Amino acid sequence: RLSQRRTDPVTGERYHTTLRPAPTPEIQARLRQNPKDEQGNIEKRLNIYYSHVKALEDFYQDAFYVNADQDPFVIFEFIESCIIKPLPCK
């Protein structure tokens, strides 16, 4: 998903090659990819994340998992319910 992000240098508008493609061939031709979004750089960032995630999980033992692939309102409601009325620990 990250490697398919593009930016229009003229308008600053952001696009995604699959999920939100540029509306015209003219705009599509001038889109640029941020160097951070290149495949090699994404892999480096993920490797750093995976090398630190266990230590973070151990440090933040009271944290809860949020599935962010949902409607923003559902995510908000879930986070709010965890903060206001936490579910019992397993």
UniProtKB/TrEMBL annotation:
Q: What SUPFAM superfamilies would the database entry show?
A: Microbial and mitochondrial ADK, insert 'zinc finger' domain (SSF57774)
* Region annotation Disordered: where it falls in the sequence: 1-25
Question: What are this entry's molecular-function GO terms?
Answer: AMP kinase activity
**Keywords assigned:** Kinase, Transferase
Please give the coiled-coil regions recorded for this protein.
none
Answer yes or no on keyword Kinase: yes
Keyword Chloroplast tagged: no
Q: Where is the composition biased (Basic and acidic residues)?
A: 1-16
Transmembrane segment boundaries: none
**What protein family is recorded?**
Belongs to the adenylate kinase family.
Name of the protein described by the UniProt record: KAD8 kinase
